[in-house]
Design a protein that fits this description.
4 helices; 2 strands; mainly alpha; 135 residues
Amino acid sequence: MIWFRAFVLMCACVTLEVTFNAVRRLLWHRQSGGLGEISVVMLPIYFFGIGFGLVGVSGLVAEWPWALRALAYAAVIMGFEWCAATVLYFFGIRAWVYTQGWHIQGKVRVDYIFYWWVFGVSFDAFNSLLVRLLP
């Protein structure tokens, strides 16, 4: 059942990122249409990174206060994002390149820590629900 939970988490993450990108383009960049998209290389990154990586971390931080757990998830996500981008860059793939904000080598935006923290809070609740529904 862990594979199915990883798949559900991947689908949720893809939906969340597409929505985030659409809202960001519509509100912050004033681009009409609110088009949200992601690169197809994000599917395995979300499947393994979130579906297994964060699920594994959740077992390690389960007893921590929720705000600290969310911060741990945010740190792990940002570290994983940097590592994934580095591997993709090695193969000549630039699925994302940050040019604005506080970024590290264009691979991860440090100023997105708040968004990843909110995601961590949401992930914690959603993952707990999935564990109960899909043991």
